[in-house]
Amino acid sequence: MNQLIECVPNFSEGNNIQVISKIANVIKSVNGVKLLDIDPGKATNRTVITFVGEPELVCEAAFRAVKKASELIDMGKHHGEHPRFGATDVLPLIPIKNITMNEVVMYARKLGKRIGDELGISGYFYEFACTDEKRRNLAACRAGEYEGLPEKLTNPAWKPDFGPAEFNETVQKTGATAIGARNFLIAYNVNLDTTSARLATIIASDIREKGRAKREGDSLTGKIMRDDKGKTIYTPGMLKAVKGIGWYIEEYGIAQLSFNLTDTNATSLHQLFETSCEQAAKYGIRVTGSELVGMIPLQIMLDAGRYFLKKRHKRTDFSDKEIINFAVKSLGLDDLAPFDPRKKIIEYRLADR
Prior knowledge:
Elements: E1 4-7, E2 10-11, H1 17-28, E3 34-41, E4 46-53, H2 55-72, E5 88-97, H3 101-119, E6 123-127, H4 138-142, H5 149-152, H6 169-174, E7 177-181, E8 186-192, H7 197-207, E9 212-213, E10 234-235, E11 242-249, E12 254-261, H8 269-282, E13 287-293, H9 298-311, H10 320-331, H11 341-344, H12 346-351
Parallel strand pairs: 5-7, 6-7
Antiparallel strand pairs: 1-4, 1-5, 2-4, 2-5, 3-4, 8-12, 8-13, 9-10, 11-12
Helix pairs in contact: 1-2, 2-3, 7-8, 9-10
């Protein structure tokens, strides 16, 4: 039986359509690879591309995309709302069919070595592909962002897993790349009727698993508390398997809670949305809808639809299409732009292969 993996690289370009198209075209140039989704963001200046195929083919397409991005994107000139440290900022491989996570780790590490050896790009392995537990979390690998790379790459504790351990001329242009093997992740933004990035950050911090920094006196303005080693002390957040930040998105004129949901068995999408509504209300802020970045599994949408149907004391024996439409309306996924389930639900796109 054929093995199938998904690759969801994030490129540090969200405005220049020609650049995005050229990267997408080299992915499509690999026969047997199916490009499922291209999701650019102007304010984040970042594009998420999703493609699937057999492992060797996906890795070849990923390599070509990293190479093309390194030619077209200059990180020395990059600005955007999203944390980033490279032209191909993050490149996860995800098991989809007939393949184990250990096998995906092998492909991720092989790909990283090739990128370092042939392209001279530095980087780190994260999640299941990590070589050190402190590198498991993507945020730790990317801490300091692009601007911190000159110091980070020469720090023995953060010697890159592949590529040069120096901020040379190549890395100055390309930045670094984080390559991972992980389970399916949902990138999900919640829209607020405020322009305050500060309030959005506070709300996101309340919700995310990591929580919010403890402060002396006033919980919002007091001095941040630190332990004996100088590390920030955190009050744990409300939901497991949730990473989150708050930001203001100029193209929409609103602030958002920007989340990564890493395990929907620990926290469901609808639970994250409902909790966001409740927490925002405590600060006098209303949630107007939400936004999906990239793609989503069918079952998660069906679970959300059935949850909201039950909440409104309605029966749930509808067709999948009707349940999904109810989920879209309840989550406000069409708040900022039309939401097309045929394009955003991974099983539907795979069926078109």
